[in-house]
Design a protein that fits this description.
Elements lengths: L2 E4 L6 E2 L8 E2 L6 E4 L2 E2 L1 E6 L7 H9 L3 E6 L15 E4 L15 H13 L4 E4 L1 H9 L4 E2 L5 E9 L16 E7 L2 E2 L6 E6 L6 E4 L3 E4 L7 H9 L4 H4 L3 H29 L2
Parallel strand pairs: 6-7, 6-8, 8-9, 9-16
Antiparallel strand pairs: 1-4, 2-3, 4-5, 10-13, 11-12, 11-14, 14-15, 15-16
Helix pairs in contact: 1-6, 2-3
Length: 269
């Protein structure tokens, strides 16, 4: 499948090692098209509020059409990959094995494999990465140590030549919020590791990517999550004091990284 460019929108950032000056390139960018149509991406959300964050903003800036399916509202997933050029599976508070409360998980697992077999880009964030791992037969680890806040993510040697993560050429602090994790799926290439969890990013085949970290977040997005979880202080004591300085230090590099990663993911369509 080949994409071509049409007149259009703006953006994209590029990232240097964490803590250094980074360049935010606010310049016109052509919209992404597949044949004569704008690229169409399916986004799968798991809650009643959008979590796509800076991924969505970057896609819109690139002229990509986004169709969102809200799983917990009972919205039906497409029956095949044919109407879309890629799929993004976002994060959520449920476990990737909780089919009883998320009956759309089994058809989603099947749909992920369809996109992969059609050689179309697949991207999973946190829960999404766990669901992709499940769809490829990996073991899932439910209920581990809570990882919350910004933590260093380190690229592997394999990441250097990767078309989507090749710009991550030094450790970068990215936001985490999870207890569940996964083993590396059979045949997958590990692209990034973390302080507490080893498989922070992976690629399967040419175009299937899973990211444990939340590279899509902004401070307002996370603040909305925090406000809806009154018991968070019990799980993460003192976060009201140390989380704002973390965002002050790491949000801008994280956003620039997200913009670049999303653009590069689009370009492999």
């Amino acid at each position: 499948m080949h994409w071509k460019k049409s007149p259009a929108s703006r953006i994209v950032g590029t990232i240097l090692p964490d803590g250094e000056q980074y360049a935010n390139l606010d310049r016109p960018q052509p919209a992404v098209r597949i044949g004569e149509e704008n690229m169409r991406v399916l986004a799968v959300e798991h809650h009643d509020k959008s979590t796509i964050g800076m991924i969505g903003e970057t896609l819109r800036d690139l002229g990509v059409d986004i169709q969102t399916v809200w799983g917990m509202y009972g919205e039906e997933l497409p029956r095949s990959h044919r109407e879309h050029d890629g799929i993004i599976v976002l994060g959520g508070t449920m476990a990737a094995l909780e089919d009883e409360i998320c009956p759309y998980f089994p058809p989603l697992i099947h749909l992920i494999r369809e996109f992969a077999e059609a050689d179309k880009p697949v991207l999973g964030v946190c829960l999404g990465a766990q669901l992709i791992a499940r769809s490829f037969g990996a073991d899932l680890h439910i209920g581990g140590e809570l990882e919350f806040g910004f933590h260093r993510v380190t690229p592997t040697v394999a990441a250097a030549d990767d078309p989507v993560l090749g710009h991550l050429d030094a450790p970068l602090s990215l936001f985490q919020w999870h207890t569940d994790h996964y083993a590396l799926p059979p045949g997958a290439e590990r692209l990034a590791t973390g302080e507490r969890y080893e498989n922070q990013a992976y690629r399967i085949g040419r175009a299937v990517y899973g990211m444990q970290f939340h590279f899509e977040v902004t401070r307002p997005l996370v603040q909305g999550y925090v406000e809806r979880m009154p018991n968070l202080e019990e799980q993460v004591p003192g976060h009201r004091d140390w989380l704002p300085p973390q965002f002050a230090a790491h949000e801008k590099p994280s956003i620039a990284f997200c913009r670049s990663l999303t653009r590069r993911w689009v370009e492999i369509a």
